[in-house]
Automatic annotation (TrEMBL):
Protein name as it appears in the record: Tat pathway signal sequence domain protein
Record-linked InterPro entries: TAT_signal (IPR006311)
High-level lineage: Bacteria, Bacillati, Actinomycetota, Actinomycetes, Micrococcales
Amino acid sequence: MVDDDVPQHGSGVRPISRRTLAKGAAWTTPVLVAGSVVPAQAASAPATPCQCLVGYSRGSDWTRTDNTYTFDMNVLNSNCGLLSLFFSVVNADDPTAAYSVTYTDSTAATVNGSTAGNLLAIGTITGTLTVPAGKTVSRFCVAIDVSYRFILSSTVRTCTLQLCWGLTNPTASSGSLVVG
């Protein structure tokens, strides 16, 4: 019995060896994989690190001296995944960061402060804020201008990262920060 799909010797057609077939498959597979996976990831991937970075409560804390608060806000990469590898170090130094503050007496205000820190997939942003005498912060949100660049580009871009925190035991001189 002769298989019609396999060329016979002497028929003028050279048979394809398994090695030749494997070489062709090896070259074709990466193209197929890249062609099918990359567009789906590119379409859904965040465009800036500000869409990836979120506050992380563990290890985040605050201290108060007179009317000046210092916040150590831990930040991590929430949903960029491997895309974060394409961002260079993110600079969160913002000398005019705007803080939306809620005080323990339920009044609210916007107060200018500052932030400093360098991030990639994880890091700490230190914030400083001075409030009016007699006011005690219970919760705050801060809008931080973050500078970044893609590794393959020299163009520096800026996005705004919004972080919100609650202070544990706000009448004390120090405590933990809780995301929210």
